[in-house]
Amino acid sequence: MTSLFTFLFLLFAAVAQAISSSGSRLLVVLEDVAEKTQYSKFLGDLEGRGFQVSYETPKSESLSLFHLGERSYDHILFFPTKAKGLGPNLTANLLIKFINADGNILLALSAQKQAPTAVIAALSELDIHLPSERTGLVVDHFNYDVTSAAEKHDVLLLPTPGALRPGVKDFFSPATPNGELLAVPQAIGQVLGNGELLTPVLRAPSTAYSYNPKEEAEALGDDLFAAGKQLSLVTTVQARNSARLTVLGSADMLSDQWFDAKVQKVGGKAAVATVNREFAKRVTGWTFNEIGVLRVNWIEHHLNEEGQGNQSNPKIYRIKNDVTYSISMSEYEWDHWAAFKVPASDDLQLEFSMLSPFHRLSLKPTVSSEESTTYSTNFKLPDQHGIFNFKINHKRPFFNNIEEKNTVSVRHFAHDEWPRSYAISGAWPWIAGIGATVTGWSFFVAIWLFSKPTGKGESKKTR
Amino acid sequence: MAPKKSQTKDASAAAPVVTTGTTASAVPAVSAPSKKPSSAAVAAKSSDAWSSVATNILSHYQKTTPQRTKLIDLFMAFLVVVGGLQFVYCVVAGNYPFNAFLSGFSATVGQFVLTASLRIQTTEANKADFPSVSPERAFADYVVGSLILHFFCVNFIN
């Protein structure tokens, strides 16, 4: 009976844990709470993953991101709204403050509804730029969906994005065994600045461009907002505090209609299903800290020399000591902590630094369990005494920033730690030199003392 | 000062006498049987002159130097040889470990300097410069100084 209770308790604990690594309170901001039926599958998925979803409209007076200086929600999800502004409870300043307080934001925009000024102001602070007049529609005459946008060409069909570049883990590409495509209907493209914190997830194909459907319906103007790969359809920002913000160019991607749609690319042979649902899961999962979250479990360093004490994390080392450094790391995967594996062609590096690094070494995985991987390295401390740091500075796209610093003193050799001269064969000639001098001197003194005869008389005489 | 003056006078007076003596007697004795061409005779003459100077200085040294000063000179020559060997070894084989070279080499140099001081203080000619230092006192100073030097060198070579 007790075992049954324990089992139930553990099961409950496991279920309760099946949420984001940084809290489960999710605020969904909609124009009208009734709109959520459009996104029922998407929101149902979020609730199924353990998020406590609250729905609010921008007009709601009870809406407040902070309560007594603390965040009221862990994550915010914005759906497009009609109003020009988002009201006094959701100003750009408050959104930035929310990010600074480690809150995550997912912004779903749409070309059909103008982006609110608060959102535009917040995004421009992050160096993400939206088309002027707050509207812009991305069209592509080579990658559109034949069934739904044969005329307007504004439903883009794209393959899954793949890894950003070699050495970066691919979080956002669901498996597509049957050539499923990503449908991006009525998207608004973003142009990114040069910020290091910005990472595009999904870029428009090179044949796409953005135009203003109201002003440029007949003919394109001279000044195109952006075209081709300049346009980012899904953009992520990870602030220095590892808070995440994702801009989704097309809110319709998340709707039930496009989760289930069959699409056919222009020139495609047959209609295929969309992978929007899986892609949406991954985008929200990343944004709301369900994937791509790293944790340092422990750090340990010790002397790696025979006949020496094996104390953990000593405060002081000597120059030229052999030292072992180990760090245990885990990665959060949807609902549990798993072993962190560094992507191929990437490295976890340790710096041994005083002002600037004296060593920058790759850590190798040594012990791997289900929940963690231990990375470690052995190295000889530099021939320089002072205050040093063991420093891990791991900043990679889509992973939260890891910055760990352990300070130790490195002393010089004590007087009795140098090898004796006779232990070094190179010193023997000079030892012999000293020996010859001393023996010669002894003989000299002895002869001097026993040979007084002639001089004495003379000296006495002169005295 | 008086003995010094007299010594230099003696030397200057003795030198011409000796040189004339050698030119007269030694040159024909040595060069006549071995060197026939007259062109080489000049060189042979000069070399003989130099060697006669050397032998003259040597005999003068052996005659006028007290035995203890000779002992000091022998010891100093020994130190120069030992120090020279160590220095040559350092140049040829490298100076690792440097502290060993420093202490080995400076032991000979220091010992040489101390011995030179002993020689200056015990020479009869310098008596007037050190009226308060007897040879026994000078020797005692020398022994103490040398022991300190040896201690430092052995300590430094580790």
From TrEMBL, chain A:
Pathway: Protein modification; protein glycosylation. It holds the Pfam family OST48_N. The chain crosses the membrane at residues 427-450. Residues 309-452 form the OST48 middle domain. Its main location: endoplasmic reticulum. InterPro entries: DDOST_48_kDa_subunit, OST48_MD, OST48_N. One of its GO terms (biological process) is protein N-linked glycosylation via asparagine. It is a single-pass type I membrane protein. Residues 1-18 form the signal peptide. GO terms for cellular component: oligosaccharyltransferase complex. Component of the oligosaccharyltransferase (OST) complex. Subunit of the oligosaccharyl transferase (OST) complex that catalyzes the initial transfer of a defined glycan (Glc(3)Man(9)GlcNAc(2) in eukaryotes) from the lipid carrier dolichol-pyrophosphate to an asparagine residue within an Asn-X-Ser/Thr consensus motif in nascent polypeptide chains, the first step in protein N-glycosylation. N-glycosylation occurs cotranslationally and the complex associates with the Sec61 complex at the channel-forming translocon complex that mediates protein translocation across the endoplasmic reticulum (ER). This is Dolichyl-diphosphooligosaccharide--protein glycosyltransferase subunit WBP1. It comes from Apiospora kogelbergensis.
From TrEMBL, chain B:
Component of the oligosaccharyltransferase (OST) complex. It comes from Apiospora kogelbergensis. PANTHER family: DOLICHYL-DIPHOSPHOOLIGOSACCHARIDE--PROTEIN GLYCOSYLTRANSFERASE SUBUNIT DAD1. Subunit of the oligosaccharyl transferase (OST) complex that catalyzes the initial transfer of a defined glycan (Glc(3)Man(9)GlcNAc(2) in eukaryotes) from the lipid carrier dolichol-pyrophosphate to an asparagine residue within an Asn-X-Ser/Thr consensus motif in nascent polypeptide chains, the first step in protein N-glycosylation. N-glycosylation occurs cotranslationally and the complex associates with the Sec61 complex at the channel-forming translocon complex that mediates protein translocation across the endoplasmic reticulum (ER). All subunits are required for a maximal enzyme activity. One of its GO terms (cellular component) is oligosaccharyltransferase complex. This is Dolichyl-diphosphooligosaccharide--protein glycosyltransferase subunit OST2. The keyword Transcription does not apply. The chain crosses the membrane at residues 71-94, 139-157. Keywords: Endoplasmic reticulum, Membrane, Transmembrane, Transmembrane helix. It is found in: Endoplasmic reticulum membrane. Pathway: Protein modification; protein glycosylation. Belongs to the DAD/OST2 family. The lineage of its organism: Eukaryota, Fungi, Dikarya, Ascomycota, Pezizomycotina. It is a multi-pass membrane protein. GO terms for biological process: protein N-linked glycosylation. The keyword Metal-binding does not apply.
